[in-house]
What we know:
By secondary structure, this protein is an alpha+beta fold. The chain has three helices and five strands. Pfam families: Acetyltransf_CG (PF14542).
Amino acid sequence: MTEPQVLDAAGSSRFEIHVDDKLAGFAVYRLGHGRISFIHTEIDDAFAGQGLGGKLVRAALDAARTRGLAVIPQCPFVRGWIQKHADYLDLVPEAERAHIGL
């Protein structure tokens, strides 16, 4: 098995994670006004339990940071991941945190 690869499939408005050239999962987003809102994250059952969801979210949030985008984690998985990784909390605007449970 090769190292998972994450790419921004901008035409589909989602980050994708691929393992051995197979789509293993994705995180759907919406862009607007200097923000990226993560709507839904999904990992294929065939790839469950391999930590791919975390790798996908970390790569997507790193990309948001690089692009200077604020993050709105509407997706429960992304929100929960940020809760466990406080070094990414700064991506979520302070005024939004209480509203979304962070």
